[in-house]
Write a structure and sequence with these properties.
This protein has about 70 residues and is mainly alpha-helical. The chain has five helices and no strands.
């Protein structure tokens, strides 16, 4: 437990960002497989159950904004 606490303390990226990044990546993978192409912002938003505006705010919009911060 203490080791995990320390690792979390050292991690610069908030857990909510990691969760959102993972959800977006999973949505992109699922839609890419289903559609046979890169999904658009509207398709990703619908898949994630948010409006396109909420998608841009929460998931960084079409440029995968959450990855810009760390990957």
């Amino acid at each position: 437990g203490a080791i995990l606490d320390e690792l979390r303390r050292l991690d610069w990226m908030p857990r909510v960002w990691r969760t959102r990044r993972t959800r977006r990546a999973q949505a992109e993978d699922a839609l890419r497989e289903r559609l046979g192409r890169e999904p658009g912002e509207r398709e990703l938003a619908e898949y994630l159950g948010v409006t396109p505006e909420e998608f841009r705010e929460r998931y960084g919009g079409p440029a995968r904004g959450l990855e810009m911060a760390g990957e």
